[in-house]
Design a protein that fits this description.
By secondary structure, this protein is α/β, with parallel strands linked by helices. The protein is 33% helix and 18% strand. Helix 3 (125-135) links the parallel strand 5 (118-123) and strand 6. Helix 3 packs across helix 6 (211-226).
Length: 338
């Protein structure tokens, strides 16, 4: 059991200083934001959370509280069309609009905590956005110390047939905002029945996805896989080996293609929402440890004048192998040789 170091305070509110860059006029210029920070002490780093499809930032309260108790400031906006933020549920003006949400989230975090290192955490669809934002050179990509990606939506375990995708893209061109209902089997999200019940009771989650959003996520996932070698920001990818919604193999393949910039942890036996699994405290500790190590590395790089590419990988991974396997039991026994 992790000993908490600090008491935590939290708040949530509408934020109008988001700095959105899209000109779609399809959503108001504000987002609903959730914030957590250690009480009575200055945070040593900040994490901006990007949630998954149909989700919202409030569902990361457990993770954010844990990280804040370790001295991190954490924020999570409800992305456009999600949670308490404006926009029709599951509808986007363009994929570029979603990438603009990443810049907006970081703008808010940096305005609250301007003098400390900043990290991105992207879950599922949020992982897709964070990865594509880094690969395509998001406006503030040079200003973050690293990214932690959980169960990213790069590929699904069972890829759609080519004929189906051609029909879907044709229909998306004709009716881009046509929404389809995507039913969710909550047992695929987490093994924890309390987490499953919380998801069922949450009135802010939704399962409506427009055809434009669906095809954009598939295409951007494939594009990211093909361009993984462009990754220049230190990134930790994590995935449960029993994830039935997004592909664990794709995450591992992405890390390999990205080279030494990326590290990969396979959580043995875990499902899609690592932050809601029985092993979540071990997951949170790995996130905090990796971020702390990145801060130490960056400080050392600046002090001795090394290039970022010449600095060794963190202790989470091994230089010769991007894969670290952690068994999925409540005690989170580590099977890797660190």
């Amino acid at each position: 059991m992790q000993a908490y170091l600090y008491a935590v305070e939290s708040e949530s509110s509408e934020r109008r200083d988001v700095g959105l860059t899209d000109d779609s006029n399809t959503a108001a210029d504000w987002r609903y934001e959730h914030r957590w920070k250690p009480k009575d002490t200055e945070p040593w780093a900040a994490v901006s959370i990007l949630h998954g499809f149909g989700d919202h930032g409030g569902r990361f309260e457990g993770m954010a509280t844990y990280l804040a108790s370790l001295g991190l400031a954490v924020s999570a906006i409800d992305l456009v069309g999600h949670g308490k933020s404006p926009g029709r549920r599951g509808v986007i003006a363009s994929y570029e609009q979603l990438l603009g949400e990443v810049d907006g989230a970081l703008s808010l975090s940096r305005s609250d905590w301007p003098r400390i290192p900043h990290f991105l955490f992207g879950q599922s669809m949020g992982g897709n956005l964070a990865i594509n934002w880094m690969l395509r050179g998001g406006q503030q990509s040079a200003l973050i110390h690293g990214a932690i990606i959980g169960s990213p939506m790069l590929r699904t375990p069972c890829e759609p047939k080519a004929e189906f995708m051609r029909a879907g893209r044709w229909l998306a061109q004709k009716l881009p905002n046509l929404r389809i209902h995507t039913p969710m089997c909550v047992e695929k999200l987490s093994q924890d029945r309390r987490a499953q019940d919380a998801y069922r009771r949450d009135r802010l989650v939704h399962r409506a996805m427009s055809l434009r959003l669906a095809t954009s996520l598939i295409d951007s996932g494939n594009w990211a896989m093909d361009n993984a070698h462009l990754l220049s920001i230190p990134t930790l990818l994590m995935h449960g080996t029993h994830d039935a919604l997004t592909s664990c193999d794709a995450s591992e393949e992405f890390a390999r293609r990205a080279g030494p910039t990326a590290e990969f942890i396979a959580w043995e036996g875990c499902r899609h929402d690592l932050h809601d699994e029985p092993q979540r405290e071990a997951v949170f500790s790995s996130v905090a440890f990796w971020a702390k190590n990145r801060c130490i590395q960056t400080e050392t790089i600046g002090r001795i004048g090394l290039s970022k590419g010449s600095f060794p990988r963190s202790a989470v991974g091994r230089a010769s192998d991007c894969r670290v396997c952690i068994e999925g039991n409540p005690q989170a026994s580590y099977t890797a040789d660190f």
